[in-house]
Amino acid sequence: MAKLKYKLLPEGMIGDIHIPIDIVYINYRDVTAANIMPKQAFEAIAKTSLNPMGINIFDPDSVCTTSDGVMVDGTVRFMAAADRGKFNKDFGFLEAMEMPYSDELIKEEPHMFQWKKSFDGRKLFRGPDVSKKIIPVHNACVTGRACNQNCSTEMANMVTMEEIMLPILGQQEIINNGNVLIGYTGQIVSVGVGMTVPELSGRLFPTRQFKAGDTAHACAKRAKNLKETVPCLACDKKTLAKNIIKCLVTGGIPGGNIACSPAVLTIAKHIGAKIDYGNITKAAYEELATIGFDEDWMKKDLEKMTPEELIERADELIPGLEGAKKYKVSDIVKECEAEI
Question: Which of 60, 123, 157, 177 could staple 74 via S-S, CB 3.0–4.6 A?
Answer without folding.
Answer: 60
